């Protein structure tokens, strides 16, 4: 079974200040369980054996919230199991979330039904506990989206709704979504902390809640309705506000390009997740995209 990476389309940081967020699977990068000769496994398994021990301790202490067949997992690791993945580390696309989703899918003894939305919050907590090994703390959002393999609307109040994804815009629509690779790995926690620290200033927090949150909600709504021209207007507004309010999170080598998009109006860039590196997410007119744009189709 193949597990896609994940893409946060809207709600980066603002979900922490009351907005919704919309995330979806990103098949551009993928991972799956694979086998190799036992004597070659250690180089490919990376931290999986230590993770197995960590999960066993959580389960023994009844802190995991699920029953996993961790004895079989440990045995499979000794026999040469590893997670083969091209999901980039430190890019916010779910490299650790994918392996958590894959382990739950393979080893959960009584897995939660993907179609049972009432149990999504519980599943999110379980997967967050599993992913805490990699990050120290995890919301469980990334592995949840990857496990469900469908777009998810996340509300700040904790409500989780699976939604249909509109068809991507085509040539006739005259718009294209794309990624730009900054070439910089980053830690999500570092940039989340910066955002929360800045929100301690009441005037900054007020700008987020009164300006960026409403346009984020509007963008999510028109995206679901496939109103691409209206979405592009909202996208440009988000780009301008992020440039004003989140400039430290925009990698310096890309700040001029960000401004160029706003000045010329042919494309607009926004953060893709926490910022500070990884990917930038863009929307623009196909004939005027930046060099090295990775098209999302």
Summarize it.
This protein is of the alpha+beta class and 297 residues long. The protein has ten helices and nine strands.
List keywords for this structure.
5-stranded antiparallel sheet, 10 helices
Describe the structure.
The chain is of the alpha+beta class. Helix content is 43%, strand content 18%. Strands 1, 2, 3, 4 and 5 form a five-stranded antiparallel β-sheet that branches. It has a four-stranded antiparallel β-sheet with strand order 7-8-6-9. Strand 7 and strand 8 form a beta hairpin. Helix 2 runs antiparallel to helix 3, helix 2 packs across helix 5 and helix 8 packs antiparallel against helix 9. The protein is globular and about 60 Å long. The two termini are 22 Å apart. The relative contact order is 0.16.
Topology (SSEs and partners):
Layout (H helix, E strand, L loop, with lengths): L2 E8 L10 E15 L5 H5 L2 H13 L9 H10 L1 E5 L9 H13 L12 H16 L5 H8 L3 E3 L5 E3 L13 E6 L6 H11 L3 H23 L3 H18 L9 H10 L2 E5 L7 E6 L9 E3 L1
Antiparallel strand pairs: 1-2, 2-3, 2-4, 4-5, 6-8, 6-9, 7-8
Helix pairs in contact: 2-3, 2-5, 4-5, 4-6, 8-9, 9-10
């Amino acid at each position: 079974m193949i597990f896609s990476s994940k893409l946060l389309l809207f709600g980066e940081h603002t979900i922490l200040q009351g907005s919704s967020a919309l995330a979806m699977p990103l098949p551009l990068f993928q991972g799956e369980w694979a086998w190799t000769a036992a004597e070659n496994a250690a180089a490919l398994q990376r931290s999986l054996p230590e993770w197995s021990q960590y999960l066993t301790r959580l389960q023994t202490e009844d802190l995991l919230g699920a029953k996993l067949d961790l004895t079989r997992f440990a045995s499979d690791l000794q026999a040469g199991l590893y997670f083969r993945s091209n999901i980039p580390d430190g890019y916010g696309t779910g490299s650790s979330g994918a392996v958590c989703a894959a382990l739950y899918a393979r080893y959960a003894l009584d897995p939660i039904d993907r179609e049972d939305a009432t149990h999504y919050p519980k599943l999110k907590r379980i997967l967050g506990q599993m992913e805490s090994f990699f990050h120290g703390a995890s919301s469980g959002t990334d592995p949840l989206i990857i496990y469900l393999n469908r777009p998810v609307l996340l509300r700040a109040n904790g409500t989780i709704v699976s939604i249909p994804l509109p068809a991507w815009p085509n040539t006739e629509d005259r718009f294209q979504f794309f990624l730009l690779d900054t070439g910089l790995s980053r830690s999500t926690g570092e940039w989340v902390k910066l955002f929360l620290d800045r929100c301690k200033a009441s005037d900054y927090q007020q700008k987020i809640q009164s300006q960026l949150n409403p346009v984020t909600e509007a963008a999510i709504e028109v995206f679901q309705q496939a109103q691409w021209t209206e979405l592009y207007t909202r996208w440009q507004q988000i780009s301008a506000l992020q440039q004003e309010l989140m400039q430290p999170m925009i990698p310096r080598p890309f700040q001029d390009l960000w401004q160029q998009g706003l000045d010329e109006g042919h494309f607009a860039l926004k953060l893709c997740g926490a910022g500070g590196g990884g990917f930038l997410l863009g929307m623009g007119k196909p004939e005027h995209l930046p060099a090295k744009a990775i098209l999302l189709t």
